[in-house]
């Protein structure tokens, strides 16, 4: 009895889903004078579970872009076709991300934007590749994401190798500008993919540039207490402390440092979890002041960025990289669809691969994808000064001079 | 790496961190000792309590320590209700059902918090957030020193209560011999609910002592559950003094282990102790050998 | 015998599925349900039949996953060959955990907690050791060929997981009808009486945990092939241990079909709640948790227990 029920249920489900998919992909294009069929875009992020905070910001950024594009008339080359978001929740787990990709595939999405966390991105890009769905990686900084030879994967922003190398170079520039007072560093990183990868790169490249890496401290996620790490810091007295971890641990670390009166010449983080976060600056101004971070950031002089930031802050949201990386990934996608003049997956992949889109406000130059990685992508170095986050390096984008060494 | 100048403050840090762990474990050990429930929802309830302290501070400007008289009775009421109307009903006295029920409760609580209060991390600022106490040259964070004495006080209160009060006697009776207690007329369901309530009240106190030096978000409880279990087993299930001592031991082991093996690998010390205690002395330090 | 036919017919029906169904969503759902069933079957052997409730089955899962992934990444071993190796590694960990726990007479909650601790120890070690890739994890290279245990479509994966669950079913059926199974359930029902009757309690329990661990490790190896990435949290985190025990408890402990019923029911519940309340973060999981509590309250012996009650009532 059970067996037959299961079979019946599956057949019914599959019939229903197949019908929906057929209706989706064939659509109703070409009916003269009628509204052009919407183009479905999968918006896949971990909006629940461990990284829900970031996932929700990502979804917000993507949705914002979709709404704007539609309000401005949709995809002109396709008769004003509007973008339709197909929302997915990866629940902070790769398996769930994969099943969402399956659903999006059957819903007939032309592309997917997501999935924030590297581990989830690895799984979703692979799953999407099986159906040749173009997948724009919004944040996920692991370099492996674009090193697997998947034709469907495109990442607008930089990976952690590029970010870390830029961080090291800019650190050296900053130190040199101040006549090289700093000679020793201490790296504090979280234990998973992002932190470990970043720390490995730092440890291998910094000595070559004349810095002594006093210690590399790996800590768990979550870490409940940083007193001991700060104790070690006190004893070692590094000139520069380099954290690479997530928001919660970052906050605990810098708070403990302030409490124990540990004042290095700089706290210079790489992809610092809290460092370039307006929330951090707003809620913990005492500890945030002076902190330096090498992170995703927008071109501070670009008018569109300033306008968007104002718009976002007006509705009481923080203008974080999760928001604007997703926002721009959607615009990049829209540009590709516009140039392809088609919602077909292969056409969009080709359009992205040959893309040289410049209407963004990141410090990247026109997009140029090699193996799915946007070549011009780079981070910027920021510092919290007078309650605001300002770009301090490289010079071409700087709003302020870096204050280094920091005198508390 | 183990120079005295670092070792001494590190041990003190371990003791104060352990004190907070002990506060969390106090509730868990009572719940286990009396109801024989492994309460997987303990971390999620701690999270709810932390939100309670946070909102009392954010909306009413109440200092976390001043919030104690609100949090403790409030959490007690929550615990009583949860046991009486949810967990007690769901368990039918079977271990695996209680496990499922507390797991389900964790899901409900964590996602309720996510839905109601969003996922971002909240912190509070108090006048003493950055102050330290000088203990023989080591600078120990003030909130943690307060937590240390708070844990001592809470343990003392609980010990006195269990030994001297009628309810305490009833609890001891039910913990030792459930059927017998029923036979002599003790309302076992009521005792269960009271015990659960007291257990969660301890979490309320723990939250007041923890938040000044920490933060809250819907997932924050997960980081404490395993440690709390380790302490309960180490100290002896049902023993308050054991939870206190166990908390200190685990705190110091974590601290020194972190110094010696690195913060990530150092965590292993906690679980090695956990396994060793379970294998060689499962009744814990103060438990009676059954 | 009836059970055996049912197993074979069920597996046969599922095997035919790819011929009728091309929907990736449905096939993925079936694969993940069978995967959850496999984990549940393995857990059920030790807990449902053996009465030893483990909270740390992730220790075996992760070992199987890492064994398979590490061999492929570091030594280029063919993925199919990694499967038996993963099973052996998992079984070895099972033997270690079992030998220690049972030798020192751990039962009930104490046994549950010690398995939890072992899983955590493995997780911390995996985070720190180069062989497992430390915190970065291991990415199994894409090969997309059946010879490399990676399939272009879903059908291949479906057959593999089906074969593994079939093994699980047969093992469970065997436990219900064999002498060993009788010893095992005797130990579950009353360890002391069983010992008095001459059952070698230690050996019986040890064998159960070894079988359970090996089967779980096979699940781990399958996971690595299907998702191609493993890290300490995915391998040894509590999520796997919870997934292993939810199905059998909901579906009915110590039964052949319990893990399948439970896994299917939970997956469907998850899909339903997500579809109904998809967009507001957290609401669907709240409902899921509430339904779990309700299930436990009103179906204390699981879904299997419900069927048994109904069958008993039928004239």
Query: What profile does the largest beta sheet of chain B have?
Result: 2 strands, antiparallel
CATH architecture of chain B: Orthogonal Bundle
How are the strands of the largest sheet of chain B arranged?
A: 1-2
Q: Under the CATH scheme, which class of chain B?
A: Mainly Alpha
Integer-rounded radius of gyration of chain B? 19 Å
Work out the count of structural domains of chain B: 1
User: CATH topology of chain B, anyone?
Assistant: ABC transporter involved in vitamin B12 uptake, BtuC
Alpha-beta classification of chain C: mainly alpha
How much of the sequence lies in strands of chain B comes to: under 5%
Structure description:
The complex is a heterotrimer of chains A (408), B (290) and C (315). Chain A has helices at residues 2-26, 52-71, 94-106, 118-129, 160-177, 193-205, 227-236, 247-259, 278-283, 285-288, 303-314, 321-340, 345-353, and strands spanning 39-45, 83-89, 111-114, 135-137, 153-155, 184-190, 212-219, 240-244, 266-270, 292-295, 369-370, 373-374, 380-385, 388-393. Chain A is α/β, with parallel strands linked by helices. Chain A has a 7-stranded mixed beta sheet with strand order 7-6-8-9-10-13-14, with helices on both faces. In chain A, strands 2-1-3-4-5 form a 5-stranded parallel beta sheet, sandwiched between helices. Chain A has a two-stranded antiparallel sheet with strand order 11-12. In chain A, α6 links the parallel β6 and β7. The longest helix of chain A is centred in the first third of the chain and has 25 residues, at 2-26. Chain A starts with a helix and ends in a 15-residue tail after the last strand. Chain B has 290 residues and is mostly helical. Chain B has a single domain, classed as ABC transporter involved in vitamin B12 uptake, BtuC. Chain B has helices spanning 4-35, 42-60, 68-91, 95-117, 142-164, 166-176, 178-183, 188-210, 222-235, 240-261, 268-280; strands spanning 132-135, 138-141. Chain C is 77% helix and 1% strand. Chain C is built from 14 helices and 2 strands, in the order αααααβααααβααααα. Chain C has helices at residues 2-20, 24-49, 58-75, 79-103, 108-128, 155-177, 179-189, 191-196, 201-227, 232-236, 238-251, 258-277, 283-298, 302-313; strands spanning 138-139, 229-230. Chain C has a two-stranded antiparallel ribbon. The longest helix of chain C has 27 residues, at 201-227. The radius of gyration of chain C is 19 Å and the shape is globular. In chain C, 60% of the residues are buried. The model of chain C has no long low-confidence stretch (mean pLDDT 90). Chains A and C meet through α1, α3, α4 and α6 of A and α1, α2, α5 and α10 of C.
